[in-house]
Amino acid sequence: MSAVPDVMLNNGQRIPQLGFGVFLIPPPQTEAAVAHALHAGYRHIDTAQMYGNEAEVGDAISKSGLSRGEVFVTTKLNNGAHRPDDARRAFDGSLKALGTDYVDLFLIHWPLPTRYDGDFVSTWRTLEEFYRDGRARSIGVSNFQPHHLRRIHTAGEITPAIDQIEINPYLTQDDVRQFCADHQIAVEGWSPLARGGVLTDPTVDDIARRYGKTPAQVVLRWHIERGDIVFPKSVTPERIKENIDIFDFELTGEDVEAITALNRNQRTGPDPDTFDWIPS
What we know:
TIM Barrel; globular
C-alpha cells in the first residue's frame, strides 16, 4: 500500500489527503473503528462536537501506540456554541474529551446564517484566538458557501485553512471549489460517496471494472486526483482497509471528466443557506 499524500495548507501545516470520518458512528463503536483505521494506516481523524464521540476518538489515539504528533485530528464547533464565550467553553471541552492540549484543525461546523443575527464573523474571530494561542494548529470552516467565505475573508484577520463541504460526483460544488482555489483555501469533501448513492452508477461501475477496483475506490480516487481532502467512514475493518487502498492506481483525465460530468447539484445533506438546527 502506497503512502497517503499530504496537502499543504495556507499556513504551512500539512494534512493527510485521505482520512477517517466518524460521523454517525455511535460512541460505543467509535473507539474500535478508529483503532482499526489507525492500524490500517490512516493518520487523519475527523470528528465533531455534534457527533458526541470525541472522547472515544481520543481514547483510540491514546491507546494506539502512536505519538500525538503522528495523528492529524479535526473537530468542529457545535451549532449551539457560536457566541464567543460559548465557543471558548466548547473548545475547552473538546480538548478535554479528546485528551489533548491542541487540535490540528478546528472548524465552525455550519454558518447558521439565520441564527445569531447571522453573525458567524464573531465566531470566526474567536477561532482566531485559538489559533494564535496554539491550541488549534489550523482553523477553518465547514459548509460555507462563497458568500459566507467572502464575509470571513473581508472581516477576519486569518484566512480559513480549509472549507469542509459536501462533495461527490452528484454534487461537484465547482463554484465553492473555485472560490477556495482563488483564496488558497483547501477543500475537504464530506459524504464523498453520496452516502453510497454513486456506487451503483453505471459510469462509476464501468470504470471500476476496467481498473479491477471497487466503485468506492474509484470515487475516492476521483476526489484525490481533483485535489479534494476526503475522509470516508465505516465500522467494517475490511471496508476501512479497502478505502485507503487507492494509491496504487491513477484514473485517466477522461475518467475524471466522465465522473465529474455526473454532477446533478444533488445534496444528501442540508442546504447551508437554510440549515439552522441547534441541538437542545
